[in-house]
Task: structure prediction
Amino acid sequence: MMHAKGKGMDCGCGGHEGGSHHGMPHGMPGRGDCHMGGVSNRFLRPYILLLLAEEPVHGYELLGRLAEFGVDQASTDPSVLYRVLRMMESEGLASSNLDPSGSGPARKVYCLTGEGLEVLDMWAAKLKQMTTFFEGFAKRYAKLSKD
Result:
């Protein structure tokens, strides 16, 4: 997982012990991986960073906007999103302010920091590299099914 200045390895799930993630190496897909609406928390972070770079947003709205990327809202636990947001704040990647406008209680509005933008840039480069890697895998796998 990428963190600015090497901060932390916790994805916010609360399942970390002794450098492992639910008994598995951190970030490994499988039974022990944390998921939010079918998306691993590891890969949820760049989407959150991207959405915050586009515009400041409150958590509930952010949850809805994640659906644009295929995150299934029906199986999404909002507490996971808020835990990731709090973690991103503590890492200096995001900041929040209370917005008293609108009806009801003031809501936290999250925005990306300069450090968060740097991490977003790193994620974009890494995801581009991973896309090339996975495309190569898919092409070779497709050849197997033709045989």
In short: The first helix runs from residue 41 to 54. The helical segments are 41-54, 59-65, 78-90, 114-146. DSSP finds four helices and eight strands in the chain. Residues 24-146 form a domain with the Arc Repressor Mutant, subunit A fold (CATH 1.10.10.10).
